[in-house]
Amino acid sequence: MLKVYLSGEIHSDWREQIIDGAKGLDVSFSAPVTDHAASDDCGVAILGGEPDKFWHDNKGAKINAIRTRKGISDADVVVVRFGEKYKQWNAAFDAGYAAALGKSLIILHGDDHQHALKEVDAAAMAVAQDPRQVVEILRYVLDGTLPNA
User: Fold this and answer.
1) What percent of the chain clears pLDDT 90, i.e. is strictly above it?
2) Which of 6, 86, 94, 121 is the most exposed, having the fewest neighbouring CB atoms within 10 Å of its CB?
3) What H or E segment, with its residue span, contains residue 120?
4) Domain map (residue ranges) of the chain
5) CB neighbours of residue 115 within 10 Å
6) What does each C-alpha distance from 40 to 53, 80, 143 come to in angstroms?
7) pTM confidence score
């Protein structure tokens, strides 16, 4: 079974598109917590409140990092999506972490991020523009079949 970690933006349904498209393939998926409020507030919800927003965010980031590190470490392939709406600094960090671990890395973004992500793209095994392409990469890796073959 191919283990795939889906990292990156949380404001669109790209993860669901990949998971739905990969039905029938021998793939398991994992991902960070995509409930924005839960992800932001997990630290204070579990460890107690913080009056300073920096420490509030710091607690949450560290707890989220436990899940992220585990997911990336366990993955055979890491897909990192950069969306249009926000700058995903965390996604860039995840891509660098995966690259440092020698993980097979697929970067997913539109043309508008091509220049800004040139170093991230250079570390990837593939750079896709839409979730369908990611599914086709996974299908090829597992079955050796091309689209419409």
Assistant:
1) 89
2) 86
3) helix 118-123
4) 2-32+73-143
5) 8
6) 11, 20, 39
7) 0.94
